[in-house]
Write a structure and sequence with these properties.
CATH topology of the largest domain: Rossmann fold
Structural class: alpha+beta
Shape: globular
Number of strands: 16
CATH architecture of the largest domain: 3-Layer(aba) Sandwich
Number of helices: 21
Radius of gyration: 30 Å
Number of domains: 5
Distance between the termini: 60 Å
CATH class of the largest domain: Alpha Beta
Length: 550
C-alpha cells in the first residue's frame, strides 16, 4: 500500500509502525522484519515512526491481578477468544494515544479488497487504498515481488504477527521451533510460569513433545535450516543404529491431566514407589524406572511397567484412547463438488453443535479445535488449498471427522444397532447437505441446558421432519436431558395447567351431556375445550405426535 500511494503521489504526513516488544530488550517481531523496515526506509527515503506501549508483553505477562478470584496471580498467556489484554494493551492503546496527539487526521491501512471482515470494522476516519483500488492480497504480493521488495517472512509464513502469538497455526509454531530456537525457549519459560495454557487445547510443553516426536519420525533424513541468531546452519543427522534401537525401545504414555503432579502422584501409587524431582534442565520427575516430563508424558523402557501404568492411569481417567478406525462405525460421503466454503461450513457446523452431538451419542466423538475455527475465520481466502493447509495443521487434534479430496468420513462408535446406524448416517448426510446449501454457518459452540428441546429444533431444521425420520430423531435424543416439546420449566408448568383445564372442561361437558340439559351450554363448553386444544397444539388442529424420547 505504502509504495503504491507514493507512486500515485498521494500526500503522506507520517508513516507509523506499532512496535510490540516481547521483553524490554527483545522485539515481538521476527528479526527479518526489522531488517525489512530499514530496507523500505532506504528505498523510499523516509523514516518510519515506531510507536510502542510503555510495557512489554513479558512485563504485562507477569503483572498480577489486583482483585477478584485471581488476585495475586499473574496474567499469564492471554485468552485466544473474546477479550485479549495482549492486543488491547500492546497495540490498540499506544496507537490511539499517539493518534490523539496528531489532531484531526485520516488513517490509511493496508487492508486488501478480499478482506471484507477487516474492511467492515473501519470507521469514517480510516481508508483502505488497496481495497479502493480493487487490489487483492495476491495482487499486492505480485506487485512487491516484481520490485524485489516482498517481505522475506512471507516465504515462511502465511500470516505475520508477533512470534509469541497463541492464535497462529501449528505450521507457524513448528517453524519457529525449528528456525528460531531462542524464541521458542522464551515461550517455554513463560509456559512454566503461566497457569493458563498457551492455547486452549495444548500448552507449550505438549507442543514441544509433539514436534519432538515429529522430528524422531524424520530423524533418518538430513534437514538443514538457516536461522538469524546470528546466521548459522543447524544439521539434524541420522541417528546410528544403536541410538535408534534405544529410542524405539522406550514406551511412552501421553496423559490428559491438567497438572502433571497429579500424574506423578498416580504413578507413585501404581508402582508403590516414591517420586523424585530431577531438577533443571529437564525438570522431569522420576518414579521407579519411568520418567514423567513437563508435558505429563510418562516414558519407560520396561514393558511390564508400561502395562501397569497404562492400566492404572486409564482407571484414574488420565489416559485418552487414541482415535483409530478400529472399533468405529465409519460413515463416508463423497466430497465431489464441495467447495472450500462448503468445507468451512461443515467444520463450523460440527463445532457449533459438537456438544449436543457428543451428548446425544453418549461419548466425546467429535472435537473441532477452537484454534482451527479461529484460523479459518481469520483466513478469508476461500481457496481449497488454504482450507486443506489449516486442516492438515490441526489433523492430530481433530476427532470424529476426516476430510480428503475423495470423501468426508464421520467416525462414530461401533454399533450393530440398526436404528443407531441409520440415525448417525442420516445425521452425517444432513450436515453435509446443510454445509453445501447454506451461505454461512455461525461456528459459535452452543451449550444449552434443555438439550432435547434444542436438539429437536435443530434436527427439524436440517431435514429430520416427518414420520420417516421419527426413529432417527428419537435415537438422537434418547441420551439427552430436558423436554423435547417445551423450552423451559415455566412452559411445562403452563402446559400442565392447560391440560388440567382441558380435562375439567371435558368432564363437565360429559356430565352435562349425560344429564341431557343445557345443550347450548354444552356446545359452549365444547368450544372452550377446542380452544384449549388448539392453544396446546399450536393452532393447527392436528393431534400431537406421541412423546418422542421424552
Amino acid at each position: 500500500m505504502l509504495l503504491m500511494m507514493i507512486e500515485k503521489g498521494m500526500p503522506i504526513d507520517e508513516i507509523i509502525y506499532c512496535n510490540v516488544m516481547a521483553t524490554p530488550y527483545l522485539g515481538g517481531d521476527f528479526p527479518e522484519m526489522y531488517a525489512y523496515i530499514k530496507k523500505i526506509e532506504k528505498h523510499i527515503g523516509r523514516k518510519i515512526t515506531f510507536v510502542q506501549a510503555a510495557l512489554s508483553f513479558e512485563e504485562q505477562f507477569y503483572t498480577e491481578y489486583k482483585r477478584g478470584e485471581r488476585a495475586g496471580q499473574i496474567y499469564g498467556f492471554p485468552f485466544t477468544t473474546g477479550f485479549s489484554w495482549c492486543n488491547d494493551r500492546l497495540k490498540l492503546k499506544p496507537l490511539r494515544q499517539y493518534q490523539r496527539g496528531a489532531g484531526e487526521h485520516i488513517t490509511y491501512l493496508g487492508i486488501a479488497a478480499d478482506e471484507p471482515k477487516r474492511l467492515a470494522k473501519m470507521d469514517e476516519y480510516t481508508r483502505a487504498p488497496l481495497a479502493e483500488w480493487g487490489i487483492t492480497e495476491e495482487m499486492a504480493r505480485a506487485y512487491l515481488e516484481e520490485r524485489g521488495l516482498l517481505n522475506p517472512l512471507y516465504r515462511k509464513f502465511r500470516r505475520l504477527g508477533c512470534w509469541f502469538c497463541p492464535k497462529q497455526c501449528l505450521d507457524s509454531l513448528r517453524r519457529i521451533r525449528w528456525e528460531y530456537p531462542d524464541l521458542w525457549r522464551v515461550m517455554l519459560q513463560w509456559q512454566e510460569d503461566s497457569r493458563r495454557a498457551f492455547r486452549p487445547e495444548r500448552n507449550m510443553f505438549e507442543l514441544e513433545e509433539r514436534f519432538r516426536r515429529e522430528d524422531e519420525k524424520t530423524a533418518g533424513k538430513c534437514r538443514i535450516a538457516l536461522t538469524l541468531h546470528p546466521f548459522r546452519v543447524i544439521n539434524v543427522v541420522p541417528k546410528n543404529k544403536a541410538q535408534k534401537e534405544r529410542r524405539n525401545s522406550h514406551m511412552k504414555i501421553k496423559t490428559n491431566a491438567e497438572n502433571r503432579k497429579d500424574v506423578v502422584k498416580a504413578a507413585a501409587e501404581i508402582l508403590n514407589t516414591p517420586s523424585k524431582y530431577l531438577g533443571v534442565p529437564s525438570c522431569n520427575f522420576q518414579v521407579g524406572n519411568c520418567i514423567i516430563d513437563r508435558a505429563g508424558t510418562v516414558e519407560t523402557e520396561d514393558e511390564k511397567t508400561a502395562e501397569m501404568l497404562l492400566t492404572g492411569l486409564a482407571e484414574r481417567g488420565f489416559v485418552d484412547s487414541p482415535e483409530t478406525d478400529e472399533n468405529k462405525l465409519l460413515v463416508a460421503l463423497p466430497a465431489e463438488g464441495l467447495t472450500a466454503l462448503n468445507m468451512k461450513n461443515l467444520i463450523f457446523l460440527i463445532h457449533s453443535r459438537q456438544y449436543l452431538i457428543n451428548q446425544s451419542i453418549g461419548e466425546k466423538t467429535f472435537c473441532i479445535p477452537d484454534s482451527l475455527v479461529e484460523e479459518l475465520e481469520e483466513n478469508e481466502s476461500e481457496t481449497m488449498e488454504a482450507v486443506k493447509d489449516s486442516l492438515l495443521a490441526y489433523a492430530e487434534e481433530m476427532r470424529g471427522l476426516g476430510i480428503s479430496e475423495e470423501k468426508i468420513t464421520f467416525r462414530f462408535p461401533y454399533t450393530e444397532d440398526a436404528v443407531k446406524v441409520k440415525a448417525w448416517t442420516d445425521l452425517a448426510t444432513a450436515m453435509v447437505k446443510q454445509a453445501r446449501e447454506q451461505k454461512r454457518i455461525d461456528p459459535e459452540e452452543r451449550i444449552e441446558e434443555n438439550e432435547k428441546y434444542y436438539m429437536r429444533i435443530w434436527l427439524l431444521r436440517i431435514g429430520f421432519g416427518g414420520k420417516d425420520m421419527k426413529d432417527s430423531r428419537n435415537a438422537l435424543m434418547v441420551n439427552l436431558k430436558g423436554h423435547y416439546a417445551f423450552r423451559t420449566q415455566a412452559d411445562i408448568d403452563r402446559a400442565k395447567v392447560r391440560t388440567k383445564q382441558r380435562a375439567e372442561a371435558k368432564k363437565l361437558a360429559k356430565q352435562e351431556a349425560q344429564e341431557g340439559e343445557g345443550g347450548g351450554e354444552t356446545a359452549g363448553i365444547g368450544e372452550t375445550v377446542a380452544e384449549l386444544f388448539l392453544e396446546e397444539t399450536g393452532g393447527n388442529g392436528e393431534k400431537p405426535e406421541p412423546t418422542e424420547a421424552a
